[in-house]
Amino acid sequence: MTRIYATYDIETPVGLDRAASVLAGEQSTGTFVRLAAETDELRARSAAVIESITATGSASKPALPTRKTGATYDRGLVTVSWPLGNFGTSLPTLLSTLAGNLFELAELSAIRLVRMDLPADFARAHPGPQFGATGTRRFMGGHDGPLIGTIIKPSIGLTAQDTADLVRSLVAAGIDFIKDDELQANGPDCPFDARLEAVMRVINDHADKTGKTVLYAANITDEIDQMKRNLDKMQRLGASCAMVCVSSAGQAGVRSVRDHSAALIHGHRAGWGVYSRSPDVGISFEVMQKLWRLAGVDHLHVNGLANKFTEDDATVAEAARAVQTPVSDHGGPAHTSMPVYSSGQTIWQIDPARRVLGNDDFIFCAGGGIMSHPSGPAAGVESLRLAAEAAQQGIPIEAFATKGDPLSQAMAQFPRPNISL
Amino acid sequence: MTRIYATYDIETPVGLDRAASVLAGEQSTGTFVRLAAETDELRARSAAVIESITATGSASKPALPTRKTGATYDRGLVTVSWPLGNFGTSLPTLLSTLAGNLFELAELSAIRLVRMDLPADFARAHPGPQFGATGTRRFMGGHDGPLIGTIIKPSIGLTAQDTADLVRSLVAAGIDFIKDDELQANGPDCPFDARLEAVMRVINDHADKTGKTVLYAANITDEIDQMKRNLDKMQRLGASCAMVCVSSAGQAGVRSVRDHSAALIHGHRAGWGVYSRSPDVGISFEVMQKLWRLAGVDHLHVNGLANKFTEDDATVAEAARAVQTPVSDHGGPAHTSMPVYSSGQTIWQIDPARRVLGNDDFIFCAGGGIMSHPSGPAAGVESLRLAAEAAQQGIPIEAFATKGDPLSQAMAQFPRPNISL
């Protein structure tokens, strides 16, 4: 396969055929005045091709404000393909092409990039995750089951020493994974270096005493050169997991970290809502997560089932599965990452989270689900581990729990959410 | 001023006061269960503060699909502030904070970041444009008036030699500025190195013969390390303008180019529609252009008056003015860039383009407006230069043109667009 395929959900006042032509033209050889240089040979080599058009509906009003108007606004799925010769395997130019000026076309009153089908050459050309799930477990000195994790809270405001003190109580509680909040990076009130030093003293002490290495995802997100300095600091202190806000640092920023890093890359998708919230403009997670994985994220946030945000459970499940699906349907390295569930997660979500994937290669982050356990954080972690064990054995937690154990206490404490899968 | 202010246009089913609290909490010290560590002292230091709430309307249906529902969906402008102590002057963390998880809040059925007010420290902490308009003119060996430019078309499909041949005819026509299309970066069919070599031979020959240096904005957009290699290649060949697609490379990518570059940075905003198209989710250009300027763009695309895309003239005018407005209202370097007008531009748009700004520090890119001139490209360039001269002297082109001159020919050739300023 030597072409890249993209599918768009569009709405248009000028008819689906015409709109698809404009889109394919704008993103390849077309200009609004046909030029002499646009020869048949050039078009055969470089023009985008409309592969299919499927009408899905029609409306009397445009979904988005648009300069062109029509009697009806036709909705449909349009698949367009480009030859690899136009931009090779460059991800930034793939973005400029598949997700560039087309969002502003006057002929479109809705435009979402919903699917992208990449040749195996893309999978081969990019480094992808350096460690993935297997490497993550290796960093921990071996670990079975999902990683039980949490996020430093409050998100922002703790000093470096406050953070280390909280980490001390979390590692004592038996946690596997701790991450900074996306708001906490390198501000004057909690500088990265001081925080990393204070936290790694606790993590390393705990490893020396117990043999267990807790992963600390330090939020290195910053300008490229600063991220490199942060990574160097991590290496000196034996820190093995770098959190990067993939939208804030950009996909090219993630790749730069990957090229420079001996650490796991924990991808946080703060800002994701800009792409996901509107049904009428944006880019699907199915598409974006391929770019982030090609760039090298080992872990990628997918929200949580029954989360406190807007995404429904079907969307979250699809996102989690996407991260474990090969990046190209046509061969090359699979470049799978570990999905990270978080947001309002308790013992009730572990079994469905596992069922979505059919395996334990995920990170499960809980906040209140650990800290608000009636018998304290250690019981909170234990209750989640018991729930994970129950899920692995295919036993409902109601049957798995024994009276008065941490799991049954958690079941009494946390209301059971509605989850629709 | 030691706080950063952001204004959001929101819609909510839970009441504006409650929605503003959730937003401010999510993006600073709040958690959905209040923690012991969230002390009054911590909140005083780090919490986001709701500065103002102004109701603007109400609807019976939500603008965007949302999990929470209400009897009415209240719309309003909410201004929130954060202390600099939380994240200092880091642009990526500013993005994670002002434009992060909040887009996904279930309490919001619309959320756009519309304004951002930065302290002078932000202007001081960032390099900003290295050259701006003055430096751009210096690279050209001095130049009066707006830069008359064009874009290589077809966008993609020309070989390196085809491109150089087209450039030869353009420089012969007297053009000031030529840019690659955003689709043309470093694909196998037109590799960056080969194209740059072929084009710079033409540009440098022309400079040797005529003393005039035409700027060629070479599209370097790629992964960070590749952009650096492209910049090195440019320096060896005496190329002085690097085009970067600011969304595809990311703001951190732009900054990385700025730190490594002895060249002008020509910022192209391919993909901008994702942020701009929906009135209910996204980020305004007023906000984003500040980030790109702080990161270092010397030129920034703003669309054109009477363009072929969706933005109306008021939006384009506001964008062009924004790029020339100091990045902070409170002092520090102004970091102004040159606005770049393009898309369906002819002699009719130069006067209004200049009136919007009140000066000639802009780049005016025309395609058909040059190539389709009845007396050829040289007359096309000359007609635009005459139109610019008329604008500078405050004379309507109808009065400035003389019978049969390139300007009057262009007026006869190109239909006069409706422009509403």
UniProtKB/TrEMBL annotation, chains A, B:
Domain Ribulose bisphosphate carboxylase large subunit C-terminal: start-end pairs: 135-413
A family per Pfam: RuBisCO_large_N
Entry GO MF terms: magnesium ion binding; ribulose-bisphosphate carboxylase activity
Superkingdom of the source species: Bacteria
A biological process term (GO) from this entry: carbon fixation
Cofactor(s) this protein cannot do without: Mg(2+)
CDD domains noted in UniProt: RLP_NonPhot
Protein keywords: Magnesium, Metal-binding
InterPro entries per record: RuBisCO, RuBisCo_large_chain_AS, RuBisCO_lsu_C, RuBisCO_lsu_C_sf, RuBisCO_lsu_fd_N, RuBisCO_lsu_N_sf
Ranges of residues in domain Ribulose bisphosphate carboxylase large subunit ferrodoxin-like N-terminal: 7-121
SUPFAM superfamilies named in the record: RuBisCo, C-terminal domain (SSF51649), RuBisCO, large subunit, small (N-terminal) domain (SSF54966)
Family from the record: Belongs to the RuBisCO large chain family.
Protein name: Ribulose bisphosphate carboxylase-like protein 2
Organism the protein comes from: Tritonibacter horizontis
Origin organism lineage: Bacteria, Pseudomonadati, Pseudomonadota, Alphaproteobacteria, Rhodobacterales
Gene that specifies this protein: rlp2
